[in-house]
Amino acid sequence: MVRPPTARSAVPGVGRLGLLEPNAAANLRELAWDNVESIPVLWALSRAPDADLALTTLMRLREELGTGWAELDSALRTDKSLRGRLFALLGASSALGDHLVADPSAWQELRRKELPSAEQLRAELLAVVEAEPERGPAAGPLVFRAGKSGPEVVPLLRKRYRDQLMLLAAQDLAATVENEPVLPYEVVGRQLADMADAALTAALAVAIARVCGDKPLEVRLAVIAMGKTGARELNYVSDVDVLFVAEPADATATRLAAELMTVGGTAFFEVDAALRPEGKAGALVRTLDSHLAYYKRWARTWEFQALLKNRPATGDLELGQAYRDALMPMVWTASERPDFVADVRAMRRRVEDLVPADMRERELKLGHGSLRDVEFAVQLLQLVHGRVDEALHVQNTTEALAVLAARGYVGRDDAANLTASYEFLRLLEHRLQLQRLKRTHTLPAGDDEEGLRWLARAAHVRPDGRLDAGGVLVAEIRRNTVRVRRLHAKLFYRPLLESVARLDSDALRLSPEAAVRQLAALGYAQPEHALGHLRALTGGVARKGRIQTLLLPTLLEWLGDTPNPDAGLLAYRRVSEALDEQTWFLRELRDEGAVAQRLMIVLGSSAYLPDLLINAPETIRLYADGPQGPLLCRTQPDEVARGILTAAARYDDAKRAVAAARSLRRHELARVASADLLGLLDVPQVCRALSSVWVAVLEASLLAVIRADEVESGEPAPADFAVIGMGRLGGMELGYGSDADVLFVCDPRPGVDETKAVKWANSVADRLQKLLGAPSTDPPLQVDAGLRPEGRNGPLVRTLTAYAAYYRQWSQPWEMQALLRAHQVAGDQELGVRFLHVVDEVRYPKGGVSADAVREIRRIKARVDAERLPRGADPATHTKLGRGGLADIEWTVQLLQLRHAHEVLGLHNTSTLQSLDVIEETGLLGADDVALLRDAWITATAARNALVLVRGKPSDQLPGPGPLLSAVAKVAGWPTDDGGEFLDNYLRVTRRAKAVVERVFGG
């Protein structure tokens, strides 16, 4: 910092004083501040947050004062405290500068050495309206009636309130200019709350005069302060949240409350009663009994959270205290409500969603690492432990943090650091609001150098030699928001870990009961089991236990945001124990934040993946980010297929070859399911990847079986053999729970007896099915040949000639329809293509499908709808057979193929989605109809896949409202955790698609 010159040196230039306005030098000459005697004044001016603004406002003030300027000028030269207050005020707040210019004699207020007490504040405002205490038997404490109540009282009250605000702001800011004592944040918040109480009292006095006139006050009205006012940690510019309690709650009481809000809103600040029962739709005034009835029966968790900060502010304080005494016991039992955790989290998410994504880094109140993060965390811990610990029955955030630390519910260092960051962010909030007396919590943009410089100076932030004040401020903001984010996790979880592993010999330890309460509040349905998992994870080998202890606070926070934290923590314990000898595992979690976070999301969301990850742990390494994004998306299906074929080809023994193919399939399933659950793949990509790995396993296993047979018999295979994919496999649209529908076809090689060839082929097909379907911990590999001619009563394998003869003579409409999805997937490629040419005549009949066949297909569909739906299933939410579900969409597309594929070659296609594209391009259906069918197919497929990922087993039925539905919604990619919204969307999409199906398929 540049040192001020001595009396012997030259007067500093305006540039050195931070004055950039062109007329600054002229203004200083006009004030006679351009001489050596004025140096103390000049250097004080230079330290104002905005010296140009301060000087410009001083010139305006001089003009308004006229001859009175001499007194102020003299005082500024001799009174260091006044100098610091006035220059800091004028350089920080254009709004309060305007207020001072409008009433220039008010500068005398800044000479007051002490801030007025709550009683003095109230007396000053009541004196403005000539209020006297209310008399009579109904009068309660602090109930006054104004002598003045006409329109003239509003500007008078506003002026006096602004005077009080100006004095506080000046004392708060003075340390930026002169070495005045810094006003603690708690003092500022309490003073502002006392001012709000005084303002509400004056507004009530005017309201009584206006409503009652000369008549006695016959109602008891208590004004309950809520939010920051109730906690006495108010901002400079804020709504003042209130509730009204009256006996009786009649028209007079309602008029009094409404008039108070009107007077308060025009004279002081917005008076907001939206936190009352039923919000803005509820009665403005209620009796105490009515309040109690509402909170006992209807109140939601967030309303009890809001009541943490209730405080009688004015009016009938005895009634207000009776309200508090009656309501607080309900507040301290709110954590026992079954929906407590979900409600608190939902409220926090709703608050975060109010902030646009591009503004979150600049948002002090609601962004990540913001003030609200601290307040929500503290309130949650108070609600959890306050039921059994009355020491936590405090309202102020920093006081509550201190008590939580003193009682061992949070770490002492964590509480101290969090308090420091909270107070720093509140200081910035105060400075931003003072600038124009506007309610704001938004930091200047990163490229707003002047705005950042002003805020830095207003917040006592100075250059550090490397960075200017704005740069230092940006660094401090980043440091504090990061610290809040980090401590937000530690605040909850470090004490839990202290309870199972001694981290700090001096730290207070949570009792087992307190630890269980805290875990329950964090979303664990079985907190006792969760505590056992923590003990197991932090025990064992000392070094690994220490690493787990360092990791777990953050891991547990991420787990807490998943649908099933209990299952996730158990799965993490299982994975950790399974990988106990793998040194890379904990190192990866420690060094790669993305890996750890993605792993927790996966484990807390899916019952399908933990076993896969235990058996294919290398997949976890793919959770890291590479240069082109997550490594999970780096692998292509074709690469996986080549890998499976190469690995299986190394073995002559069929079992070992199939085991190798299974192993790589396991890795690919883990990769695809992880990427799907993390939202990195869309539905068609998932289906394609799952189908590709199935095809590769079939191909590798078939080749292994044939190779093993040739080795055992010493003879070459007597026939060519091909596997034809049917259903979803043929369409390359498999889901996680899909079987592989196939047909087996063989063709005797020259000179080989057909009977011998068919017998060999049946042996190969049977062995292939048994090897693939052998019991395993992996998801099953079921090969289903039930779509073959004559169904399960027909031979497992036929020759190509036998297939051709059957389809020419005996094929049924359902077989014609099923063959639309036939596609060569494994075995002899040339034989498979010849088979497809044979069935093309059946599935793409010349002239289109006959009317009789269409009627038969419709009859079969009606029978499927009536008979195949499982007993007790809801047809509206069955993803496969329900209304507008997968079967409806696919049968409709297949009917259009049967009717038009003879003339539209693009419909020679086994994929539902690709066929829909062709249907739209050729105008067979309108674009809107196709969009509805496509949306329904993708929505139902996503839901069906999510059901398997969440439950760990195949399922087609969406669950009813509850945690399971919310989990399915989240895994299916629904943007919120609201399972009800997801279900409503599913029903809406499928209902619209069903209307198209009925019109197109039903004729």
UniProtKB/TrEMBL annotation:
Keywords: ATP-binding, Magnesium, Multifunctional enzyme, Nucleotide-binding, Nucleotidyltransferase, Transferase. Transmembrane segments: none annotated. Involved in the regulation of glutamine synthetase GlnA, a key enzyme in the process to assimilate ammonia. When cellular nitrogen levels are high, the C-terminal adenylyl transferase (AT) inactivates GlnA by covalent transfer of an adenylyl group from ATP to specific tyrosine residue of GlnA, thus reducing its activity. Conversely, when nitrogen levels are low, the N-terminal adenylyl removase (AR) activates GlnA by removing the adenylyl group by phosphorolysis, increasing its activity. Residues 504-1003 are annotated as: Adenylyl transferase. It catalyses: [glutamine synthetase]-L-tyrosine + ATP = [glutamine synthetase]-O(4)-(5'-adenylyl)-L-tyrosine + diphosphate; [glutamine synthetase]-O(4)-(5'-adenylyl)-L-tyrosine + phosphate = [glutamine synthetase]-L-tyrosine + ADP. This is Bifunctional glutamine synthetase adenylyltransferase/adenylyl-removing enzyme. Its EC number is 2.7.7.89, 2.7.7.42. Its cofactor is Mg(2+). Signal peptide: none annotated. The keyword Cell membrane does not apply. Residues 346-492, 876-1000 form the PII-uridylyltransferase/Glutamine-synthetase adenylyltransferase domain. It comes from Nocardia jiangsuensis. Residues 1-496 are annotated as: Adenylyl removase. It is an enzyme of class 2 (transferase).
